[in-house]
């Protein structure tokens, strides 16, 4: 099949690779209808993470079941499915406790920007729609593979509560879904930190009541002014850099929680402040499968348009241009059509 | 008055210092009936924290109100009171949110091992008993000034829930109260990490169902065996060293929370594990005043004997011996009689 592969820093290609094949009875093969590029794909793209040249890249996709292993009984070829980027059996002790990203049979989508993807633990992982969805709904459904549940996990981990104040650090797609999720969870004041007009616009559409374009100290001061000097009840850290994490802890009020979903890079946690101010940190890799059913219901009910984060669509052939556009922040999130 | 003062590493003296005096209308002076030595007093004692030679030391006490400022209306001379080590107005926006240790008017007991203590924000901070308590109850009431609420804060921060499994790292007095608190909050399996027989005995009396005497890797393996390979639902970190914190995160199951109450010293948080396993960290300096009423009720109801952690009582004159005994782990916790 044709798949996106990474060969070095800023070296993305489309290569012919072996078709994924069923090797365990829990596997399924999905023919990808739409994939996309994740902010976390930019880490290896930028040379910040180690890679093996020639490896496939991409972990977000939706598609149609092509083939299933013997133990996959709830899905059959032809089903339209959302593929959570982290696969889980959804039955183990950790899954039962709602920690699906700690599943004892954890797996990952390895070729989300390609023609086909292998899903390990298909029975536990996949979520299907009733019949084939409208074409117009595909982008919104695609967000359920990772970015929407990840933003939602930030909000849940930060313990966003109805009527409270939430600050979202980061205006990437995850941050924008943090805004939407804080809104879905009932936050009354949602402060989005963003200095990019198109992202600010989506943030507002997703429920942000305030935009803070400043950074660092000035950003903290702006949040403190909006919150009458109190700080935020909940902070969603949706970047993963030291700068964003420090900002997150500085705007968090005593006793509150920072919800973390940005893969951490070079962070030194402000432990002294965490201790004296009782500001906690929770979150991590999202238990995607846990959230998909409720978020799918929200998507199908209408009233929200998560798919609008995709401001660029490329064919698989042009996937490298998609990476460039995201790397240069010309695009918020790029949809890839195989 | 006579007060305990610190002059250098392992140099504790009893000195004549100025009597505390009312300087704000929110102040009160308490004549100390009993004080005690805190594990955190050992940090400066051992030279790990900076000190100013001659400063008073000690922050845990109970006593009788001697004098109150003009704005203190709920207490009068003669009232027996528990003095939370961290003083708060109990009315500010942070106190109302249950984060009393982040009070905008935060203060601290500065001379808990002395004849008198000044309480700033007396109206919000003090909790009185109905009349003078029985002499036999004094040690248990004294635990409410810090060590019991601090252990309780570890359990609350770790989100101990009925029927769950809690691991308590640290067998100092705070750790023992972590055990008792996990028990009060309904944990079914309580694993105390302790290698000291007298502490193990109290841990069992406080509700520990299992004792792990091993350390580091062996301790982690022991917990994993007890929990059928799952790990703990809640972990109480009651020490504050890097070794104890690493152990705490290693025994925590995916999605769980480490409750931190040991003042952190030289800790490097395992952020990668926290992220991939969704193990959070919450806690810090305890909002003592928040917990005192419910814990006082428990103490007065009987059935628990928190005062038994005091295995050595010294007169104020002999306070230096009390420090030595705790430093050398000959005593778990030392009560000081002025």
UniProtKB/TrEMBL annotation, chains A, B:
The keyword Hydrolase does not apply. Belongs to the zinc-containing alcohol dehydrogenase family. This is Zinc-binding dehydrogenase. One of its GO terms (molecular function) is oxidoreductase activity. InterPro entries: ADH-like_C, ADH-like_N, ADH_Zn_CS, ER, GroES-like_sf, NAD(P)-bd_dom_sf. It comes from the Bacteria. SMART domains: PKS_ER. Its cofactor is Zn(2+). Keywords: Metal-binding, Oxidoreductase, Zinc. Residues 8-336 form the Enoyl reductase (ER) domain.
């Amino acid at each position: 099949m044709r798949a996106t592969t990474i060969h070095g820093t800023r070296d993305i290609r489309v290569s012919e690779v072996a078709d994924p094949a069923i090797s365990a009875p829990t596997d399924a093969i999905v023919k990808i209808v739409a994939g996309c590029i994740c902010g976390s794909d930019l880490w290896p793209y930028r040379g910040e993470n180690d890679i093996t040249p020639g490896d496939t890249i991409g972990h977000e996709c939706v598609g149609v079941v092509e083939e299933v292993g013997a133990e996959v009984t709830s899905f059959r070829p032809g089903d339209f499915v959302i593929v959570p980027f982290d696969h889980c059996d959804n039955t183990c002790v950790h899954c039962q406790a709602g920690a699906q990203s700690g599943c004892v049979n954890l797996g990952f989508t390895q070729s989300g920007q390609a023609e086909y993807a292998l899903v390990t633990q298909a029975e536990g992982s996949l979520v299907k729609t009733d019949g084939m969805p409208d074409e117009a709904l595909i982008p919104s459904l695609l967000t359920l593979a990772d970015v929407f549940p990840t933003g939602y996990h930030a909000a849940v981990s930060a313990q966003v509560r109805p009527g409270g104040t939430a600050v979202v650090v980061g205006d990437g797609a995850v941050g924008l879904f943090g805004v939407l999720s804080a809104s879905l969870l009932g936050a009354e004041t949602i402060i989005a930190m963003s200095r990019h007009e198109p992202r600010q616009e989506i943030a507002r559409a997703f429920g942000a009541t305030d935009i803070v374009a400043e950074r660092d100290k000035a950003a903290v001061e702006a949040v403190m002014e909006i919150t009458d000097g109190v700080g935020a009840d909940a902070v969603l850290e949706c970047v993963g850099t030291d700068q964003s994490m420090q900002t997150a802890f500085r705007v968090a009020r005593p006793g509150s929680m920072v919800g973390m979903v940005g893969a951490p890079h070079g962070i030194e946690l402000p432990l002294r402040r965490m201790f004296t101010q009782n500001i906690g940190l929770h979150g991590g890799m999202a238990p995607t499968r846990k959230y998909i059913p409720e978020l799918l219901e929200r998507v199908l009910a209408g009233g929200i348009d998560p798919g609008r984060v995709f401001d660029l669509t490329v064919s698989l052939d042009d996937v490298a241009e998609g990476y460039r556009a995201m790397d240069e922040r010309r695009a918020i999130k790029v949809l890839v059509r195989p």
